[in-house]
Structure prediction request, 424 residues.
Amino acid sequence: MTIKVNEETFTPRQQAMLTAALDLLVENGDGLTMTAVARRASCSKETLYKWFGDRDGLLMATVQWQAAKVRMPQVDQTGLNARALRQSIEQFARVLLTVITSEVSITLNRTAVTHTAQEKDRLGNIVLENSLLAICRRLKPILEAGRNARLLRFTSSEDAYRTFFGLVVRDVQIRLLLGDKALIQANVEANIEADVKTATDQFFALYGGKSQ
Amino acid sequence: MTIKVNEETFTPRQQAMLTAALDLLVENGDGLTMTAVARRASCSKETLYKWFGDRDGLLMATVQWQAAKVRMPQVDQTGLNARALRQSIEQFARVLLTVITSEVSITLNRTAVTHTAQEKDRLGNIVLENSLLAICRRLKPILEAGRNARLLRFTSSEDAYRTFFGLVVRDVQIRLLLGDKALIQANVEANIEADVKTATDQFFALYGGKSQ
DNA sequence: ATAGAACCGTACCGTACGGTACGCGTTCAA
DNA sequence: TTGAACGCGTACCGTACGGTACGGTTCTAT
Prediction:
């Protein structure tokens, strides 16, 4: 069940291939062909197959490699006060929105959804593991620290996290995945700061401790 | 730009073809082939092409036809009081969650996302139009009626609607689209009622008027 | 220097599938 | 009765693409 998230570093040559694959994915959507990757990376298809097994292996490696580049906020939990907690949470919201609205994330999520639609759930699991669950794992301790400091109030940190996710992401991700022109044109990225603040305010309104 | 949502009724024979297409989509994911649809519907490919033009046309017709079957809550806005408003909003949350977690919706959303990944945005727009925007169009007037009755407080009904969406859907939709086994196993549908109540409570906590 | 591995480029194969053509049965109207 | 339209089943075509094979070239290690 556990997905083997290889932390193995790829050689520069391999990274060139992965870069080619990722770029082609972003440019051409799901129209990624092995021939195109080989041409873009100036390598032979034979080598591609040798290193990544098959097309799915290449996609998985690409997704994992890209996911490893996303850096979650590092939060210092010592001396947690209201201001620090709020900043941490805002920072999580900011990263979440920034990632989710990025061209790369949209592309990889679309690819993973497509794969899931074909009974191949590996890619979907990898994306889940590296986006939702990655954030969840890092945010939960913060929330619980906030609760311990009487700055937050909730029973289930899982539920608190999921509400946070909803407040931050709302319908943005699904609309982007479905190619909503209106939203894209509205220049979501320019509004991230305002949305981060609103979502954080709402989160504290729902889960803030008595001192809040 | 406007998508032509044909309200034209399909003949029973055509509906049989659409049913076949929809069933195959749900069963086999995106592995929908014209040959399979023809065989399932006991018709010839030639007829299929005659009625629907090409594969995309068949998919579009299928999506539109299915979307037309989803019934939004009908709300009586006369004599709006706190209790009626709350019930209306709960009902919207219930429908939203029920639809989003249904096998058919998941399949169609996956199909639309896949299409969007291929620069073909029509399907994505149709799904957006018939899910998110359909709910939005019907919920907004309720929210505004609530505001007029001093039961709700907000400046932008658009923002209020989107927050509502986030509170209700949270990470459920994206996790289902990505095939999250844990969530599927958790039997989301059994928890819908509790989630509806929680989301509505939270919504009123954020947007409830002073009398709330 | 040289054997051998690694790897590039390209040609090739098999298959799956979208789309078309056609033969034949069935229905229905004149 | 007949003929025309409709539509089913099937065979067929072209193409795109995943995957493999192979000849030639560059790199590496002894």
The radius of gyration of chain A is 19 Å.
